[in-house]
Amino acid sequence: MTNQNRILIIGGGQTAAYAAKTIRENSESSKITIFSEENFFPYEKPPLSKDYLKGDRDFEKLFFFEQKFYKDNKIDFINNKRIKSVNFEDKKIFSEDNENYIYDKLLLANGASNRKIDIPELENDKNIVYLRNKNECDDLKKKICNANEILIIGGGFIGLEVAASIKSANNVVHIIEMNENLMGRIIPKNISDIVFKIHEERGNKIYLKTKIKQIQKKDSYYDVILSNNVNLKIDLIIVGIGSVPNTEIFRGTNLKINNGVETNNYCETSITDVYAAGDVSNFFHPVYNKHIRLESYTHAQNQGISAGKNIVGIKTSYEDIPWMWSDQFDFNIQLTGICDDYDTVIKRGDNEDEGIVLFFIKNEFIVGACGIGKKGKIGKDIKIASRVADKKIKINKDIISDKSFKLNKLLR
Ligand SMILES: Cc1cc2nc3c(=O)[nH]c(=O)nc-3n(C[C@H](O)[C@H](O)[C@H](O)COP(=O)(O)OP(=O)(O)OC[C@H]3O[C@@H](n4cnc5c(N)ncnc54)[C@H](O)[C@@H]3O)c2cc1C
What pTM did the predictor assign? Predict the structure, then answer.
């Protein structure tokens, strides 16, 4: 083995797992090492706010690959090892326990962290919780059992999924969202209005355009006054106010940071031999002709694969059409493409149980689609929309609203 083959990966999540697998599939001789601050081999994160939180799925079922996979493929996986800094000039990374490691190629796959709420007096309070990993989920599960009145700060994907998963006959879940709509940044208003209705019908209380005005910790509860002057007595507070890419360990280096680690469409960063992928990367997307940062399961996997190929010299442009989903109660929400630059919106379906999909169209091309429906009702349409967008097929706007028209005809 030559010294050109030392490939280090910072972060041990989905992106890292798929990048390592791809590197091994294409290069027998590479020496691959993954550094993870967590105590587990890479596992799926989406169930943490869904089935695993509800207790419907065992943790053992969440691993992408069994432990044996890493051994069989000679992927050195180092758990409980947090990397604290990188010296890109010397091609060295440093861990918190003061070890250092030399790389020939480096992949930054260290994800994102939850944005912290700015209430200094309650900063380390144990009943104000966040959700990003297994340990936090296990902690949350225990705390929910003893909480009757729960406040979720943030009506985004994670907050709403948690709100749906933890709702029981014995608790009241309040959700506050400072914007006018739930999941407002990426979901169209028509769909977020339906999500609002679904939650309220099932007993969750949602307050839009609302913030915390005052919060006081009492002996056994929090006395919370909202900006709309509603007074709540809360046992447990769950914060889901977005995330920030984990770039702090690159501070003081020349690495180009701009809402994450900036890369081109080959996962290459501003520094030679350094790549980034997954939640931490803000990558150039040739289809949209701009940089985007995504936090989604398929993206983590596919960009990890793309990074792996590029690292071993198989030049691969990553330009997948974004896709993500959310499950709340018995409903499924899906989003594909980018729905922020369009001239027409076409609605297909008018009953959320049977599925409603909105197509975002620009100059007769689908640029994105977003839908909601009972499980299994919208997936096909969204998938076709994604393929039509990817293949840049011109569509007839008038026909796709007709539910009797089979969308896959667009692909022929
Ligand atoms: C609760 C939850 C629910 C989600 N639900 C959905 C969903 O329904 N649909 C969907 O499409 N997507 C969902 N996602 C998003 C999806 O899971 C992420 O986009 C994906 O996990 C990103 O993978 P990643 O490998 O880039 O980052 P991560 O999975 O975050 O992995 C990064 C890893 O690096 C570790 N790390 C960070 N810094 C260091 C360091 N300095 N040294 C060593 N290790 C470090 C972190 O601890 C972490 O283990 C969800 C995410 C969460 C947290």
Answer: 0.96
